[in-house]
């Protein structure tokens, strides 16, 4: 029973870490990365569709992303989606390919991006603490129902705390790496 709670908590914490990594991949660093645009939602025949399902995304140079749609008729809608996004990039369209040239990040913009990273890290830590609280509540309710002893409940709570510490440490490491990526000139 306690193991089930721990497995569930660990699965949810892993999910939160994975979501954080996906989220941070979309934050621009000093070089081009397909993750910046692949999750961008494009209105395709009335349905919001992620860009990676509509086009091939390549990185021909360190500061350029090229997007080649499978269907040329979607060029304009992809272009509109990029302009409407918060990427701050102006697409260049040559009729078959969209080029996104990434301007060099200013120090001010880097600091803003680091703040965004810190905000996302805090959201992730809150998610971890919510999982911990939920697992501890489950353990306490099992104890009240007499399904587990007080000692088992305490041990379980300690294990949940160790699990939380482990995953919060992972979140911190991911955050430090992303911050270094952003601040590297």
Shape: elongated
The description of the largest β-sheet is:
4 strands, antiparallel
Count of structural domains: 2
Class by SSE composition:
alpha+beta
CATH superfamily (homologous) name of the largest domain: Ribosome-recycling factor
Low-confidence stretches: none
Q: What fraction, in percent, of the residue positions are helical?
A: 55-70%
* N- and C-termini, Cα separation: 51 Å
CATH topology of the largest domain: Topoisomerase I, Chain A, domain 4
Care to count the β-strands? Answer: 6
What is this entry, summarized?
The protein has helices at residues 2-25, 35-38, 75-84, 107-144, 150-183; strands at 41-44, 47-50, 55-61, 64-69, 91-93, 98-101. It has 185 residues and is an alpha+beta fold.
Structure, explained:
The chain is elongated, with a radius of gyration of 22 Å. The termini are far apart. A hairpin with a 4-residue loop joins strand 5 and strand 6. The strands form two sheets. It has a four-stranded antiparallel β-sheet with strand order 3-4-6-5, with helices on one face. It has a two-stranded antiparallel sheet with strand order 1-2. By secondary structure, the protein is of the alpha+beta class. The chain has five helices and six strands; from the N terminus they run H-H-E-E-E-E-H-E-E-H-H. The longest helix is centred in the last third of the chain and has 38 residues, at 107-144. Helices cover 59% and strands 15% of the residues. 24% of the residues are buried. It folds into two domains: 2-25 and 106-183, Ribosome-recycling factor (Topoisomerase I, Chain A, domain 4, Orthogonal Bundle); 35-101, Gyrase A, domain 2 (2-Layer Sandwich), CATH 3.30.1360. The chain has helices spanning 2-25, 35-38, 75-84, 107-144, 150-183, and strands at residues 41-44, 47-50, 55-61, 64-69, 91-93, 98-101. Helix 1 (2-25) runs parallel beside helix 5 (150-183).
